Amino acid sequence: MFLPSSTRFTDPIEQAGLWLTRNSLDIVAALLLAALVVAVLMGLRRLGTRICRTPGSLSTFRVILGRALSATRNWFLVALTVEVIAQVSNAPPTVQQFTRFLITIAATFQVAIWLREILVGWITHRAEESEGGSSGLGSAIGIIQLLVSVTLFAVAGLFVLDNLGINVSTLIAGLGIGGIAIGLAAQGIFKDLFAALSILFDRPFRRGQRIEYGTIAGDIEAIGLKTTRIRSTGGELIVVSNARLLDQDIRNLSEMTSQRVSFTLRLIYRNDLKTMATIPQELQRIVEAQPGCRFVHGLITDLAENMIQFQLLFRVDGRDSAVMARARHAVAMAVLERFAALGIEFLYPAPPHDPLDRGKDRA
Questions:
Q1: What are the tens digits of pLDDT across the range 265-306?
Q2: pTM for the model
Q3: Cα-trace Rg, the chain
Q4: Which of 182, 211, 214, 320 lies most in the core, judged by the most C-beta atoms within 10 Å?
Q5: Are residues 139 and 221 in the same domain?
Q6: Which domain holds residue 315?
């Protein structure tokens, strides 16, 4: 049996009237508290917007925090206001249930937005540091932001559905299977993407630094979403995938405080032994006479069948390859001059064998 329409709507209206009359003071207090909360959040949002406009003189953490605060949405403020009023003013259970549902959805997606701004802001900051403010990985920030947004909002949507009492197990399983299929199809792309993010956060090298990668040596020109570009010492532009680049050992030459120089000196046995005994001291004096050079050792490393082998090892301060080359040349010339003055002879390679010589001797 259906009740008349006037009867069906009387109870809610009467309940609302009773609530207004009995809780008028609580409602006023709730309105004041809601206004205070909203004013504080709007003030923080305005502060975040101001920080984003003047990031130059502020720390990275403050800029990222300001970016997150400026992303506070109006619909979240409205939902929060309604929830505060409903809870403080002892609203009817149906109203409280509705406002709780509303604030759950609004807060979940607002938190997702804040996390997105923090993550993307941090990645953008690292990209600008690595790229020196130029294009490169910075141009891929849009793609990274899309991936982060899809992930966070998917998790937020599942959380909301679960709070509504919907069984999301089947949906999660479906998303998992779909994610595996997409991951297998784009395995190479994701591998290079995560390698690029590893370069950003671990920072084994940055743009403008010189590295050695396998047999390749050169300067980093750009770090991209999938590849890194290296300008070799010969002038060629070498493009290497990020995943492959991180699979091998990388020597960052820009982090060196000094450069290692080694000479192998092959001497003959008929040199005077007393003179040869002074070779380490002579080599040390030669190296230390050159500015910026530090002697490490000059010792016998091998007694071969036809020679005595010395190794001269020293270091040149700085990482300028031209300075190192000049120091190497100066030390080599000084060694030749000093050894000639001491009468120390080097091992000369035997001349190539000419098969016609034997015929000439017979003739």
A1: 999 999 999 999 999 999 999 999 999 999 999 999 999 888
A2: 0.50
A3: 38
A4: 211
A5: no
A6: 257-342
